[in-house]
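Subject: Protein record for review, amino acid sequence with backbone structure tokens
Why sent: The fold of this protein is of interest and is recorded here as tokens.
Notation: Tokens come from a learned vocabulary of local backbone shapes, not from coordinates.
Attached in line: The record itself begins immediately under this heading.
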Amino acid sequence: MSEEGTREPEGPHTPAAVPQRPAPPQRVEYVLAPGLQLLDLAGPAQVFGTAAEASGRGWAPSYIAEAATVLSHQGLPLRAETEWQPLHPSDLLVVPGWQVGGQRRPVPLGAALLDRIAAHHAQGGTVMSVCAGAFALARAGLLDGRRATTHHALQDELARLHPTARVVRDVLFVRDGRILTSAGIASGIDLALDLVAQRMGSRLASRVARAMVVYVRRNGHAPQESVMLRHRDHVDDLVHRAQDLIDDRYAESLSLTLLARELRVSERTLTRAFSRTLGTTPLRYQQSLRRERAQLLVGAGADSETAARAVGFRDARMLRTLRRRSGGITPP
């Protein structure tokens, strides 16, 4: 099999079952602070709302605050609930950022909301912040000893005020267990798309991205970068459809012949389109997806053999070989 296909050079095999994705949240609760940045809220809300419409599953929004009306930094008043409903561990809690500087406090949230953020994580829930929202997570005690990021203009302040937090600089977003933090403003969209991909698959995430016209994955050096999103900065429909198929079935032995047949084009046409648009081949694209997924599994505690088999490799040898070729660090 030549490199123009997507079957691994080790030969046919039956990969181990891929671990099931976590279910999408039944509810996404947004904590609204005075002076919040509208895009910090609207970006993730649009991603999750579009995912809900496209899938018919989960992501129902709710908005809470200490006052019924919250004035955004842009001057738009927002309505919020002040009688808070109990959260389930499967729910997602999102803390959008706010304007920092001048006379504003670093965290314009009271003790009750900070306690709610901490309690949700303590009961097994996932907490996400955008921009200055990381300061609320730190005040709630969730960043002690954890990796986190925020807007580049606020990184020094976060590190100064919360020295136990491990501030990761100049990246789009950081995942540390069930604590998700993103950088300034529009990076909340990147993190939200990544979360959709993790919970509901890359195909849905790519559909949401296309609906929002946000193909570009900024900052290719982000440690938590997504292969799927990093290679979506184009408008070639054939390559998008090929990526959808590979993203959804990356653990399978997909041959170039099979891909071309399902896409109803010739193998030559598909190979040329991939090379012209992405500068790579379907095989290498699939291998990148597998390496990334294996790295996530190793980071979650799996050994390299288990991770390799789960993503479709016969064993860890191929994974190690590909990691060396790409200049990556081989998992233990």
User: Anything to note?
Assistant: The chain has a mean pLDDT of 83. The beta strands are 27-31, 60-64, 69-71, 77-79, 92-95, 126-130, 147-148, 166-167, 173-176, 179-182. The chain has two domains: 27-199, 236-332.
